[in-house]
Amino acid sequence: TWKWVVGPMFLYLCERLVRFWRSQQKVVITKVVIHPFKTIELQMMKKGFKMEVGQYIFVKCPAVSQLEWHPFTLTSAPEEDYFSIHVRIVGDWTEGLFNACGCDKQEFQEAWKLPKIAVDGPFGTASEDVFRYETVMLVGAGIGVTPFASVLKSVWYKYCHDATNLTLKKIYFYWLCRDTHAFEWFADLLQSLEAQMQERNNADFLSYNIYLTGWDETQATHFVVHHEEEKDVITGLKQKTLYGRPNWENEFKTIAERHPGSRIGVFLCGPEGLADTLNKQSISNSEADPRGVHFIFNKENF
């Protein structure tokens, strides 16, 4: 038995040593941004740190806990000179990080007072393949929207630098959430992208739909009253917030009709149930003819 065990154990120990060495490298917090509804953004720098879109890291804050490591999706783009994560305060560890960063104080926090942070990673995800397709569907559910912050930022940087060499030509973005208030920082990012694309006369590059799934009768009434306004009253975007859940069969058929003969990448970060639905739709709406439309499904579950 030991002959079968010693090889994998040796590889495991090597992997743990590499992770320990990486986690000991110095990390500098360059900026802490407090977003509404107790969400903080940590912007950091680390020597030799290289990332791709949609990747994630493990974070440890010794001031909060010496042993706990927590995974966070990177919300910055590879083109930026820092890497960042967004942390929503929902538990003891995140509350401790919130306080350690001085976010509970009114006065300005000096940089040297910020806590030490250990970072391990980055680690790859399916979202890295976004730029291999001309057309993509990005589906984020709740906190699963965070990988696409990195993707959309990187798309913008690439688009501004050299749009002619960018393989990606069309993005269909779907955001399903119970309450948009917890992710107002992401709505701000969409607002910025929307305005910049309009300035360049390419508003059709990004099509997005926001679905509020946890709506009640009061919200529905509010929606009806303000539906004719130019901008959505919830997000401030020109695209109006939709209520309920999308009809995925209709969405897939519409996209297939618009892009015949294309390979369309479908990227999900969300629950397993939604993954099953999108996988089935990707298969049923792909044509048997190799020259026809094909949906390629990629997922990240939480």
TrEMBL record:
InterPro entries: Cyt_b245_heavy_chain, FAD-bd_8, FAD-bd_FR_type, Fe_red_NAD-bd_6, FNR_nucleotide-bd, RBOH/FRE, Riboflavin_synthase-like_b-brl
Cofactor(s) recorded in Swiss-Prot or TrEMBL: FAD
One Gene Ontology cellular component: NADPH oxidase complex
One biological process term in Gene Ontology: monoatomic ion transmembrane transport
Keywords annotated in UniProt: Cell membrane, Electron transport, FAD, Flavoprotein, Glycoprotein, Heme, Ion channel, Ion transport, Iron, Isopeptide bond, Membrane, Metal-binding, NADP, Oxidoreductase, Phosphoprotein, Transmembrane, Transmembrane helix, Transport, Ubl conjugation, Voltage-gated channel
Membrane topology: Multi-pass membrane protein
Recorded catalytic activity of this chain's protein: NADPH + 2 O2 = 2 superoxide + NADP(+) + H(+)
Protein role: Catalytic subunit of the phagocyte NADPH oxidase complex that mediates the transfer of electrons from cytosolic NADPH to O2 to produce the superoxide anion (O2(-)). In the activated complex, electrons are first transferred from NADPH to flavin adenine dinucleotide (FAD) and subsequently transferred via two heme molecules to molecular oxygen, producing superoxide through an outer-sphere reaction.
Protein's recorded name: NADPH oxidase 2
Organism per entry: Xiphorhynchus elegans
